[in-house]
Design a protein that fits this description.
43% of the residues lie in helices and 12% in strands. It has eleven helices and five strands; from the N terminus they run αααααααβββαβαβαα. The chain has a five-stranded mixed β-sheet with strand order 3-2-1-4-5, with helices on both faces. By secondary structure, the chain is α/β, with parallel strands linked by helices. The protein has three domains: 53 residues, Arc Repressor Mutant, subunit A (Orthogonal Bundle), CATH 1.10.10; 45 residues; 134 residues, Nucleotidyltransferase, domain 5 (2-Layer Sandwich), CATH 3.30.420. The radius of gyration is 31 Å and the shape is elongated.
């Protein structure tokens, strides 16, 4: 009873990792146990108790010894992780997604498999498969740590703060401007639309559509662009925020890291969609961008 209580006290808390208690037996130990039963006629219960193996394991050794001899008691060669457990359809889909989308990481591929194709594979399984196929880029060298660099931040709840920014690119020989609003906590794009001119009216239009669907946030983080703020007085966008009781936070000039989350979204939509797509017209581009963001 004391031993049982001691074991229970050593158990990790719920959610913690548990160490494996599996005992590995050498071929010599297995052969000794089998011979004690078959040649020396010892009872199976005494042999299993002496060796420390369960009855079913002892019976398994006896059957393999009778069928294959001493060779049947040798341990099989270890199998590489995920090599045979991964079904062929999942393995091929992993390689197909990586070849079609070179910028996808292992987590993104695992999510695509589960959400779009109803196929199950962990991120580590995807990583191992891509390594075997030679499709994993080498890890970049570690950057030296800068202890003076500011820490990353994010708000504690959804709709507490939004980030907004404007992405500029060439479309049909002219500049196009993609205006976006992103929730700081969840990184969910609450609003995005394409315009030919980056005006305050365009920013306010996207903002009104977003708050109509998700309610106004408590705070708004933007840069110091003329669409968002004015050097003197109150801009049209700031007046719109004041009407909705939204606190306006402006980033430091020439410091894009403050808006890092939406900057990362611009990098994703450019690399995965805009740089590779061909649009029939500006109107078609506008509709397809909305569908891509929704997708």
């Amino acid at each position: 009873m004391e031993g049982k209580e001691a074991v229970e006290k050593r158990e990790p808390p719920r959610g913690g990792s548990r160490r494996s208690t599996t005992i590995r037996y050498s071929p010599e130990q297995k052969l000794k146990a089998v011979r004690l039963v078959l040649e020396d006629r010892f009872p199976r219960c005494l042999v299993s108790q002496e060796i420390g193996v369960c009855r079913s394991g002892l019976e398994h050794w006896i059957r393999r010894y009778r069928r294959e001899g001493e060779a049947g008691l040798r341990a099989p060669k270890p199998r590489p992780p995920g090599q045979e457990r991964l079904p062929g359809a999942v393995s091929e889909k992993i390689l197909e997604l990586k070849r079609q989308n070179p910028g996808f990481g292992v987590k993104r591929i695992a999510l695509f498999l589960r959400r779009l194709f109803l196929l199950s594979a962990s991120a580590e399984t995807v990583r191992a498969r891509l390594h075997r196929a030679g499709l994993m880029a080498p890890n970049p060298p570690a950057r030296p740590k800068n202890l003076t660099r500011p820490r990353f931040f994010e708000r504690a709840t959804p709709n507490q703060m939004w980030q907004s920014d404007i992405f500029t690119f060439r479309l049909g020989g002219r500049y196009a401007y993609l205006i976006g609003f992103l929730d700081d906590y969840s990184r969910f794009v609450v609003g995005a639309d394409l315009f030919r001119s980056p005006t305050a009216a365009a920013v306010i239009e996207v903002y009104r559509v977003a708050i109509g669907e998700y309610q106004p946030p408590k705070e708004m983080l933007t840069d110091n662009g003329r669409q968002y703020t004015a050097w003197r007085g109150v801009s049209r966008f700031e007046a719109e925020l004041k009407k909705d009781h939204v606190s306006h936070i402006k980033s430091r000039p020439h410091h894009p890291m403050t808006l890092g989350k939406i900057e990362r979204f611009w990098e994703s939509i450019w690399g995965e969609f805009l740089a590779r797509a061909a649009f029939e017209s500006y109107e078609a581009a506008r509709e397809r961008i909305k569908l891509w963001v929704l997708y």
